[in-house]
Structure formats: structure tokens, C-alpha cells
Design goal:
2 domains; mainly alpha; globular; about 65% helix; about 230 residues
């Protein structure tokens, strides 16, 4: 299938009610309001398609861009592709989820994440921190640089309150991810979360930013500390 054919299909699947929800969450036009469950049906049919993923992302249509991340052939994505995506992202949702998911499952996740968190562009930095969170969620601890993660926790602890609104969210998420997925760093992440304290972020609707130590404790109570995910995508 071509990107044009997929876009025509998405137009039909969109609903005004879901579109309003997405607009209220900061997603810009153009978008059709296609529910994720519908996008996943298309994903199941297509599975992976490298070129189609690139073409869908370049439409600039939110629903198509989200789908692009779901069907992306992550291991075929080049650094050029991923840098193109991070620059073309038109909202925090695409930066924090679509771009970071694909980057983390590519061959360049760590390298690009460390590059992106130093960016002066908010959406690029958002992708960087979110990619780091996805990496610790899907990579075995043996494949992670724990010393580097400790240094990043210190960086978050010292700088999170000075960051723009959009970056504070994924930085807080990084603390939670390290504490939840890297058993050897759970205590350190909880200590960092306590030192950070309450993180103020302006979020749409009734959304609230979780307090990192409390969230990690809930994961502990479920006995899920250190349990990795099969994929970053959802």
C-alpha cells in the first residue's frame, strides 16, 4: 500500500469526538482523530514497512505519523532518518512517543538520545529523554551503562526544575523508568526523586505528573521491578 492509500483510509476512520480530545492534548492540525486501536489494526495488517513508515511520517498528519512509528522497520532506520524525524516532529506527543520508540529500537538509540538531550530545541530534548526511558525499559541491564545512568540521574536531579515545561515531563519519566526497570538503580532513582520533590508541569485536562518515588513503590508492590518490556511501542 502507498501512503496516499493509507491516508485515505485514516480519513474514514477518524471521529470528531476523538479529534477534540487530541486537540485538547496539544496535538495540532492536521489530524483525523483515529483511535489507537484502529491504528493498531492497520499495524497488524502491514506489520513492518520501512519506506511506507518514512512516507507516512512525512505527510505531517498526526494519525499517519503515529502509525509510521508503529510500522517502522526500526533496525533499518538510519541516523539520518531518525534525525529527520526528530526535527520534523510537530508536537510533544510525536516527540515523546513515536520518535523515541523507534529510536530506542534502532541501532542508534543511546547515541542519538545523548545527542538530543543537549539540544536547545525543546521537542528534540523531549525525544532524547524519552528515548533513554525506552532504552532502560527494553534493554537488558548487561547492555546498559549503569555509571552513565547514575550520572544522568544526577543531571536530572540538579537541572529538572530549570527546564522548560515540556522537558520536565520526560525527565521525570526517566527517573521513574530507571527506578522501575533497572533493579540495581532502584534505590538511587527513588533517592533522586525525593531530592527533586514535586515537579510542576502544565498538563492538559486532569492529567497529573506522577511523583517518582511513589510510582516506583507501586511497581515494587507489584513485584515488577526490573521486568523488561518486549517493545517500547504501545
Amino acid at each position: 500500500m502507498t501512503a496516499t492509500e493509507i491516508v485515505d483510509e485514516l480519513k474514514i476512520l477518524g471521529t470528531d469526538s476523538y479529534k477534540r480530545v487530541m486537540l485538547n492534548h496539544g496535538v495540532p492540525e492536521p489530524l483525523f482523530g483515529v483511535k489507537i486501536e484502529e491504528l493498531k489494526k492497520i499495524q497488524k495488517r502491514i506489520k513492518k514497512d520501512y519506506q511506507l513508515g518514512l512516507d507516512l511520517f512525512d505527510t505531517g498528519i498526526y494519525d499517519a505519523m503515529y502509525l509510521a512509528g508503529l510500522i517502522a522497520d526500526d533496525l533499518r532506520m538510519t541516523k539520518k532518518d531518525l534525525r529527520h524525524w526528530v526535527e520534523r516532529s510537530n508536537c510533544s506527543a510525536i516527540s515523546q512517543y513515536t520518535v523515541s520508540w523507534v529510536a530506542s529500537e534502532s541501532n542508534y538509540g543511546r547515541e542519538l538520545a545523548l545527542e538530543w538531550i543537549d539540544s536547545k530545541k525543546e521537542r528534540v530534548a523531549i525525544s532524547g529523554w524519552a528515548t533513554l526511558s525506552s532504552l532502560v525499559a527494553i534493554r537488558d541491564d548487561a547492555d546498559l551503562d549503569l555509571t552513565e545512568l547514575k550520572q544522568l540521574l544526577v543531571r536530572v536531579e540538579k537541572t529538572i526544575h530549570d527546564q522548560p515545561n515540556g522537558i520536565r515531563y520526560p525527565m521525570n519519566g526517566f527517573v521513574i523508568a530507571v527506578g522501575s526497570y533497572v533493579k540495581a538503580l532502584t534505590t538511587l532513582a527513588m533517592e533522586a526523586g525525593r531530592k527533586i520533590g514535586t515537579v510542576t508541569v502544565s498538563l492538559p485536562g486532569d492529567c497529573k505528573l506522577p511523583f517518582a518515588p511513589e510510582y516506583i513503590q507501586k511497581v515494587q508492590k507489584r513485584g515488577a521491578i526490573g521486568k523488561k518490556r518486549k517493545t517500547a511501542k504501545c
